[in-house]
Amino acid sequence: MKKNKTKPTLINSYQKLINISCDLASELDLNILLTKIVNAASEVSDSEEASILMFDPAKNTLYFQAATNLDTGLKRGLVVPLEESIAGWIVKNQKPIIVDDPQEDKRHFNSIDNITNIKTDSLMGIPLLSKGKVIGVLEVINKRGGKFTQEDQDVMLALGAQATVAIDNSRLFLQSDLIGEFVHQIRTPLSALNAATHLLKSNRVDDQQKKKMIDIMEAEIEALTDMSSSFLDLARLQSGRKQYSVTDFSIRELLTECYDIFYSDTQHQAINFSIDVPETLPRITGDRKQLKQAFTNLLNNAVKYNHEGGEIVIKALAKKKQVIISVSDSGMGIPEDEQSLIFEKFYRVRSHRDQVPGTGLGLSVVKQIITDHGGEISLTSEVNVGTTFTVTLPTDK
Ligand SMILES: Nc1ncnc2c1ncn2[C@@H]1O[C@H](COP(=O)(O)OP(=O)(O)OP(=O)(O)O)[C@@H](O)[C@H]1O
Ligand SMILES: [Mg+2]
Prior knowledge:
By secondary structure, this protein is of the alpha+beta class. The protein contains nine helices and 13 strands.
């Protein structure tokens, strides 16, 4: 009787595993991939929650990267002590483990139950091994109706092996994809610099032309510098290794700070700049510095793609469990057929490319930050009338 009962479930688990493996192999977005892996782990092991912790050998730390119970990217980066955690034990011993009563186990990292609000009653974890090195730990907790078995562990090890290959692939792809694009993008400013240097060296230019060349060089160097720093921001955000530093803060104060930063820029262009944010706006939980970066990028665009005597308005309002923030401008606008493309890396609206300098990375950074906060960004725009970007962020209130 017992034999008949375990066999079909095991086959079911492996069948599930085969289906999942195909899915994993084709996923190249690291965060989506890790989410799929944790969902698969909890499904095949029939457990309540699953998580992936990544190991950073440079810092010798373990941190949460994905979990079934983390609906936003925010708890990502939460560090788990190597010395006082079961995950740390797995890294050090490079072995899988089943713990029937973690509360009684000295190695269990107790604070995690408070942070996640879930009591760990049973736990199974395996190391993710790539070329003999631990890159992370896959853990499942709270087996439904029983204890984790040796069979569960075998299925998890098989899933872990698939997951590691997929993680390696996606990391390589991410690097080559981003680096390839970056190299492509720096070609134009580099060839402009190259041409200018040759001309200057040839001594065939008069003083006035020389000055012009140097101005061009200065502008190209500035473009390269901007591109490098935006590119680094984006690479960090997209690698999934970005560790957010989360606090509870007043979004109203943050928006007012952004307003102050851009005030003098707007006055130079006689832009009518206003802010309309109610004092009652609820606080939000998030990485303040990153969100400030996001709104700064939006305002930077609102100024850059505007004109003398134009207008910019920052507005915010609270809705049930949400804060809605908009940045509107009366600038050049974005043609309808290009609106869906502007969040892509390096994309710049065709008609703006020769008129306004930029790298086309600002909005990719904004989108990544907002989605990692569990929020959304959208826009409405009309050419020569203006553009409104609307950001929705979740709150507890
Ligand atoms: N407020 C806006 N009004 C009109 N066009 C905009 C606006 N914001 C963005 N765009 C268009 O979307 C493109 C992408 O914006 P993004 O901020 O990503 O890059 P950028 O401004 O060109 O460069 P940077 O990386 O320096 O921000 C811009 O090149 C521009 O064509
Ligand atoms: Mg920009």
